[in-house]
């Protein structure tokens, strides 16, 4: 990830775009911040917002004509926020004393001719930048004409107080200055480095103003060209009529141009947003109730209570569409643009703490953020790229994904991996690939579905057992992903490369994208086409359908699943976040491995989005929803219920140890029953009988410790391996390292087996210096 890639990513997240009010204001006053402070009764904070961008707020805040309101989002739901009214209310609540801290002084003297709003603003900005500013005022007092125009609108003492700010900045004022005689500009340019003309109080006729093709003076653009070398101007009315804010803004733009001229840099570069512009910030009005503008009870403006009420109408415009629907993004309390910077910085660290590792590895990679983002920011692509980079550099902490990768290796190992033609056939017209998760949670369904496909499809249906490589892909382990896919293709090609029927949407999506030349079909349309068997069991009432996140852009699979449910007589309700907006269950992207607490929050949130029972067509989604106590059906439960007599919706979540055992037993049973093959002899450690309470079993599940791991530790200890004996209880404490993790088990012999009291593991290696 280089700087260019980072910058392109940052541009796609619009959360830091200004609100519509600030974009529409020529001075870019942040009305959102002003209303937020005012709504809290923080008038001191509101005053600081004014001071940040508004020149002479004691004057301009009282006569503001509100161009910001043209960009206010609230205008679409009751009327634009009365920001000019809030500005006046802010001025009425004891504004604090102000101080001005100019930059270090510059040697260049500059002149401002005329003291209208444009000229005063230019003088203010230039003095704060350190210039030696002289205002040449044609009248007997500073801002003579402006004072007359403000009479009755702004208190005289307020005008005087604002103008005194220029004195504090050491701005010199020359009164009764002749400013229209011939050769005036030439004389000024001999004395001053550059000049600004305040055309809101000067007669524009004597000045050599450049004009466009319609004869309009070219003085209202931020990158205005000099009227002649070193002379700038501003303060004309905008095309729509007089506007004090526009006049002041032209003074600011002119000051910026003058400064750039003196510095010898481009007048135009980087100033595309000086003028009012259309912001890219998206703010949803979904659920926003229309509220009318708060009326003022008196001629002087809002009372404090009225101002608070009006300020609370502000929508506090923000996008955050991705954060609203993604618990992962919400949990880290920021938004993608900030996450992109954190991830870039994390990858750039050579030595030191990589603090964003957990954040990078907690994303489910489901793509919901991209779906809802107005600019299609794909957080999942960013996180996956970061994982691949870390893995390639050897910087990926093994603890983040190791358990899932070991589980994948088991599924690719001899205890589960299988490729066979249908018994009695030497070629396959199709091959059924159920995936490792359905085989782990409902092996009986896998066997039933395979029997059904063999009976329903001509030409022979082969069977492949194994993993599609999703855990390695999600972990950013590109080498391991390639190896799993190579193994998968080897098995597939050994069966003649027939079309593949996938029962898992993750397998369908990943193999369809990564497996070369493989035609991958979903099981659901196949069941529709062949006509599923008679319904064996169904929910007694309406259920809510949960779409797996890997079907987000696969409407044909979503519709097929719904039709199968309808054929079974199941009444379906749609979740608010369904179909293309469906949420991940917390398993995708290995979130459950890298951040189990967050994954738990994700699935509990999903389970709580409807009071109805759920129906899904993903084995993992069903398992995790069931783990929250939510009654959840898999679509195969309608036609191929697991043996055992339990209501399919009440089937508990299958533990990690049982999932491995189910896969091994599925392969073992199919080999013996269908192909009459002898199965491999059981490894010796599997003969160790374990006895444990439900509490201990839950502890092992939370800690990702498999029963097989416990068996290996005890078998090793009982064969002479290391163990300690507690002098009081007589319990043994043994440890063993079968791979990267070291497992510790406290146990005691009990009859024909061993009672497990507790166990823990650590995935680290201590090396001597």
Structure commentary:
The chain is built from 32 helices and 19 strands. With 769 residues, it is α/β, with parallel strands linked by helices. Strands 3-2-1-4-5 form a five-stranded parallel β-sheet, sandwiched between helices. Strands 6-8-7-9-10 form a five-stranded mixed β-sheet, sandwiched between helices. Strands 15-19-18-17-16 form a five-stranded mixed β-sheet. Helix 3 crosses helix 6 (83-91) and helix 15 (336-348) runs parallel beside helix 18. The protein is elongated and about 110 Å long. The chain starts with a helix and ends in a 7-residue tail after the last strand.
Give a short summary of the structure.
With 769 residues, this protein is α/β, with parallel strands linked by helices.
Please state how the strands of the largest beta sheet are arranged side by side: 3-2-1-4-5
Look at the helices and sheets and give the structural class: alpha/beta
Most strands sheet: 5 strands, parallel
Task: Report the total helices.
Answer: 32
In percent terms, what proportion of residues is strand? 5-15%
| Ends apart, CA distance between termini | 33 Å
- List how many beta strands DSSP finds: 19
Shape: elongated
Using only CA atoms, what is the Rg?
Answer: 36 Å
Low-confidence stretches: none
Averaged pLDDT: 91
Helix content: 40-55%
